Amino acid sequence: MGDNCSEHQYTCWILDPIVHRSVPDDVFDRLLEAIMGGRYRAGDRLPSQRALAADLGVNMASVREALGRLEQLRLVDVRHGSATRVLDWRRSGGLESLALQHGTGEPLLGDLFEARRLLLGEAARLAARRRSDEQAAALLELAHVVADATDSESALFADWEFMAALVEAAGNLAFQLIMNSVRELYLPRVEAFAGLVSDPQQLAPLYLRAAEAVRACDGEQAAEVIAQLAALQEAAMAR
């Protein structure tokens, strides 16, 4: 099998964010906080758009835009000519809801990391069966990138690249779409997940062992090592 991966280069560009806030952004945040914080509960009617605009001191267009974003996230049901009602995000929302809930408590993070461990373990098993030679080589290269990381931020980005490549090699589109949603939670607040790479000496060899198992087409070994790695990361995040 071909292991020549010199053409693969993985660079994590870490740039300072450009802060740009608009009035609809602020209205969205205020309404989101009220919904996720429990001020408005599932089934409650929101005030009319005119009342919200008056209360918040903004124009109607800003309120409509903010409500449209909440509707896209399936947090509210906007019906023209009728009241806007709050939905139960646990029943109607997607993985994006975890990102919106990121500061509301540990149980949600526990659910996220449990799901992560299970998904990555199965992805590793599938990747060992389905990966191309190029994907196997890329995983091994990324495992070395994780091992060579000199600080937690670069290690976190390398961890993400490794896991994303593992899921891509699994060849399961649903898994990839789930990872896309998790990325929206993970990358914008990567510093909050420093526990994932808090013990590099213990963790780095596991990336290498997992990559070697995928290259060797050993699905059970790949799944076992990735599950061990993910469990250690899960325990570190719980501390």
Provide an overview of this structure.
The protein is built from 11 helices and 2 strands; from the N terminus they run H-H-H-E-E-H-H-H-H-H-H-H-H. It has 239 residues and is mostly helical. A two-stranded antiparallel sheet has the order 1-2. A hairpin with a 7-residue loop joins strand 1 and strand 2. Helix 6 packs across helix 8, helix 7 runs antiparallel to helix 8 and helix 7 packs antiparallel against helix 10. The chain is elongated and about 65 Å long.
Keywords, separated by commas or semicolons:
two-stranded antiparallel sheet, 239 residues, 2 strands, mainly alpha, single chain, 2 domains, 64% helix, Arc Repressor Mutant, subunit A, Four Helix Bundle (Hemerythrin (Met), subunit A)
> What sort of overall outline do the alpha carbons produce when their principal axes are compared?
elongated
Mean pLDDT: 85
What is the string of helix and strand elements? HHHEEHHHHHHHH
Helix content: 55-70%
What is the subunit organization of this protein? Answer: single chain
Strand order of the largest sheet: 1-2
Number of strands: 2
Any guess at the CATH architecture of the largest domain? Up-down Bundle
C-alpha Rg, in Å?
A: 21 Å
Give a brief rundown of this model.
The chain has 11 helices and 2 strands, in the order αααββαααααααα. The chain is an all-alpha fold.
Topology:
Blueprint: H1 23-36, H2 49-56, H3 60-72, E1 76-77, E2 85-86, H4 89-92, H5 96-100, H6 106-130, H7 133-148, H8 152-170, H9 173-186, H10 200-215, H11 219-238
Antiparallel strand pairs: 1-2
